[in-house]
Design brief:
The protein is of the alpha/beta class. Helix 2 runs parallel beside helix 3. The protein is elongated, with a radius of gyration of 20 Å.
């Protein structure tokens, strides 16, 4: 059966271009169009497409409000189109909070050099999210008088738990209920987290659980365009008790600080506990790359690292996690049931690298238990 797609955009040119790309693919079809958010909601609820492609800025009802209404009434995978600006990034992050599964820049040429590459990017993203539902984060209005205030966060979509069965095991990597989880007693000096598709919401849920006095620095590798990482870091810093910033070259690691790798750059840890931010080689698929960051950590941090691999397409982070595990570090993964795309966590699980596997709702609390007990 073909993947049924609903396109919601007020631009006739954009609707036509996306339709041409989808209709040229054997396993997809466009079932209808909508010219504004209200029409998009009505058609999504009536037609029940496999994937909705949604613009953010539209008349009558904007894309964020449309996503929120769809996800509250009849959740389905939604792929957002975003302008590559700071304001566009903030709006896209709001759409992800509302329940959208993933996003793409509206100007394909900014991330893809040819029409063929752009078409592959769009169709691959559609295939990745079809049938998936995002564990939606609802952030209540923020009223705060101090830096440490934090909004209540609830998960609107309940997730069914199931165990992951890796083909090879370094240790028995089964899903652990948080109540029965016991800290390993290892000593750490760093927390490193990698994520991609579905990662912004997953990272937010994890980091919100960390206390203001979290005793270690945190390195964050999220696959994201350059225009987005600054806005994402600002958002996390506003919501979390820990401090979060977009990493800059020569930043020194500090306890209780999370450093988000800038989009379009590679972030490495040097021996002096100083970060190096560099464009890196052009041939690398990911900028930033978890494998690149993890390899530098393995080289310069003596293995005292808790590595967590969250939802995302592909296998970035697996080779780096292997290096960290060989130095005595711990490797955790998000479970399949709570992933938007079970790619990166599956890669480390199949490689037998996972010491623990948790639902996204448990990872933050488990990190605190593991790294602050004893």
């Amino acid at each position: 059966m073909s993947i049924k797609v609903l396109i919601v955009d007020d631009s006739h040119f954009f609707r036509r271009r996306i339709s041409e790309i989808i209709e040229s693919t054997a396993d997809m079809e466009v079932i209808d169009f909508a010219k504004n958010g209200r029409e998009g909601v009505d058609k999504a609820l009536r037609l029940k497409p496999d994937v909705v492609m949604m613009d953010i800025e539209m008349p009558v009802l904007d894309g964020i409000s449309a996503v929120r209404e769809i996800m509250n009434k009849q959740p389905m995978p939604i792929l957002m189109f975003s302008s590559m600006t700071h304001d566009g990034a903030k709006a896209t992050l709001d759409a992800l909070d509302a329940g959208a599964a993933d996003f793409l820049p509206k100007k394909f040429e900014e991330i893809a050099g040819t029409g063929k590459v752009a078409a592959e990017l769009i169709t691959n993203r559609i295939r990745a999210i079809v049938g998936k539902r995002l564990p939606r984060m609802v952030v209540r209005p923020i009223v705060r008088t101090a830096r440490t205030a934090v909004p209540d966060v609830t998960t609107a979509t309940s997730l069914r738990s199931r165990a992951i069965k890796p083909t090879v095991e370094r240790n028995v990597a089964k899903k652990n209920e948080l109540t029965s989880f016991k800290a390993s007693g290892k000593r750490y000096s760093l927390l490193a987290i990698a994520s991609s598709t579905g990662g912004p919401v997953a990272l937010q849920e994890v980091l919100l659980k960390l206390p203001a006095n979290f005793p270690y620095p945190i390195i964050l590798i999220q696959h994201m365009p350059a225009a987005f990482t600054g806005a994402f870091a600002e958002r996390l810093n506003r919501l979390c008790k820990i401090s979060v910033k977009e990493a800059q070259d020569s930043d020194m690691l500090k306890p209780g600080f999370a450093y988000l790798a800038p989009g379009g750059q590679q972030m490495l840890l040097e021996r002096s506990r100083r970060l190096k931010v560099t464009p890196g080689p052009d041939h690398l698929n990911y900028k930033p790359s978890a494998d690149v960051a993890f390899a530098s950590i393995a080289k310069n941090n003596e293995g005292k690292v808790l590595t967590v691999v969250l939802t995302g397409m592909g296998s970035d982070g697996c080779d780096g996690a292997r290096l960290l595990a060989s130095k005595g570090g711990s490797v955790w993964a998000q479970d399949e049931a709570s992933c938007v795309v079970y790619g990166m966590p599956q890669a480390v699980a199949k490689a037998g690298l996972t010491d623990q596997v948790f639902s996204i709702s448990d990872i933050g609390a488990a990190i605190v238990k593991e790294m602050t007990s004893g």
